[in-house]
Write the structure tokens for this entry.
Amino acid sequence: MPITKPVNESVQAVSLSELRWQCRRGMLELDILLNTFLDRKYSQLNETQHQVFTRLLQYPDQTLFDLLMANMPSTNPDIAEMVQQVRMAMVNKNRVS
Amino acid sequence: MSQIQRRQFDTLIIGAGGGGLRASLQLAAADVNVAVVSKVFPIRSHTVAAQGGVNAALANVINDNWHWHMFDTVKGGDYLGDQDAIEYMCRAAPKAVYELEHFGVPFSRLDNGKIYQRAFGGQSLNFGDGQAIRTCAAADRTGHAILHSLYQQNIRAKTHFFDEYFAVDLLKDNEGHVLGALVFNIQNGEVLVIEAKTTLLATGGAGQQFKNTTNALINTGDGMGMALRAGIPLQDLEFFQFHPTGVAGHGMLITEAARGEGGYLLNSENERFMERYAPSVKDLACRDVVSRAIMTELREGRGCGPNKDYVLLRLDHLGEEVVQKRLPGIRQTSITFLGIDPAKAPIPVSPTAHYMMGGIPTNRFGQVVVPVKDTPEEPVAGLYAAGECACVSVHGGNRLGGNSLLDILVFGRAAGNHIIEYLQENRYHRPMDESSVEAAMQRLQRWENPNPDGEPVAALRAELKQLMESHCSVYRTDEVLREGVEKIEQLAERIKNARIDDHSSVFNTAKVEALELENLMYVALATMHSAYARKESRGAHSRIDYPDRDDKNWMRHTLYSLEHGLDYKPVRTKPITVDSFPPKARTY
Ligand SMILES: Cc1cc2nc3c(=O)[nH]c(=O)nc-3n(C[C@H](O)[C@H](O)[C@H](O)COP(=O)(O)OP(=O)(O)OC[C@H]3O[C@@H](n4cnc5c(N)ncnc54)[C@H](O)[C@@H]3O)c2cc1C
């Protein structure tokens, strides 16, 4: 069983500033992908998607890395869709800059 | 100050990476009442990023010996490493790895069931004869596996964790005893004084002082900033290892494997410029040679892109199949961060800051040591340091791959053991020095008051990173560094007057970033001054204007303190039991 940060049960209550801190990770790749998403895309999501993103952040770094670097697909369709969105935020940023 | 909450522990450990957790485990297992403070959830520490492995002369694949490992480490560090600490580390390495195995790290295995080992650069057999195979790995997730196992063991041993607490400053009395630290809870802003008979700094590196770095955002040198403010000098900060090929504009690594498979570098004139710098080995020259070559190309205007600030790493000639099969990680990195498939187009790259050899000076027991009168290494009562923030000086001027995980494990454990002894002789808490609590509070509260005239933290941080990149990365000359010193001194003054606009207490990341910026600034000051002063090339510190190593004048450690500026101390050339390795030319 992988270790994860204890879950904040009232997922809705997670503020943007708390999320910003949860996007601080042990790997630069994750910092960049997650913060780009938070800055550019997060505010456009609906409440359910906010919760999925919060859930995604609870994964251990190595799992997140494998998911976000497309080394491993998620079997959970919501998470898989969120991973895609996080990756797309980076793609779109590259296009603009 | 009575309203501030207080907690007492035998030992406070600041930092929950591999270094901090190895120390806390040693202590908790000996029933020491130990607290670990970490600004991020422990298993999000940077140790998780280490994929390559950890060195130990286990001789599982071919013959090996700790003494050869020691030779390689001394030589790799360009004879600046302390040979007593290096002997200790290399001898302790096999035990450190077997302990990890015992803690549950799932090392990769050979067919005979023994721990798998791989070859890394700079490792030799028989004092420089052939390639050794010494690096133990848990697939490509060694750091992750180590961190998770240590964390689980700590939970079992009942280590007390303060997760998402930010350590602001060390607390100290007039006699120089360290008494703990002032920290605050990032979640709600609540301040806490943690009183401890012994404090260990294990806050990791400071790659974030450079624009291009492989280091995560958390690597802001907080422990080093705390040490400097507590009057402790920093050692050998001019020695910062750069990796030649970081993804341009982002910094993450494109490993040597890319060039190993036949990739090569091109400048804006489509020239394979490494042919000029290293005619025989070309793109496979050592990291520092390739980094310097790239920087020279950029400085001479042959960089690519609108700002001419990167060169190109070409892989497409290898064919799609080779790139996909042999370099899948590199391909993904390039696609994800640049939108470029290296099987079709070259990857923009530039040198990236990777690892700091310097840090808070310690002896091989993990005690922080400072010069006092005629003694260069007097222990600071109650203060220890381990891991990348410390400089026990096993890496000297240049670290070998796989030796830093070893460093954090061996010296985390050694510090734990020494603390246990210290606590047996120092049973009681010393009275808290309230003026030191007050000083730390002032530093914290300064960010709670609006300061409309100040400049924003984010802009200042960007300026600092750019300044360090252009004046103190791999291209170092007297002129470049002198200008760098002037500019960093001016920037430091402006940073002291920085501004944040968020004054809330809940998850105030603006405040955290401001405190981090201050720490980065202190580390950058130390790095720039130390680099300017060292007029030779040794290890990762390479001066265009002083291309040779100068053992006569410079085989000594730099110390930089806020109060006294620069000072130097001798290298410990005498190992514990074996003969010294005298300096020789470092050729491979
Ligand atoms: C991409 C990459 C790959 C690497 N690969 C290898 C490898 O294969 N082999 C190898 O030997 N080395 C490798 N290294 C180097 C190695 O990973 C690090 O040197 C090592 O992990 C540092 O461990 P540490 O315990 O000193 O610090 P870290 O793991 O960085 O932990 C620092 C801790 O301090 C805490 N902290 C910091 N500041 C504060 C504060 N103000 N308040 C509270 N807590 C704080 C953090 O939360 C964290 O818990 C690699 C480095 C990088 C960047």
Notes: Chain B has two domains: 5-239+357-436, 242-352.
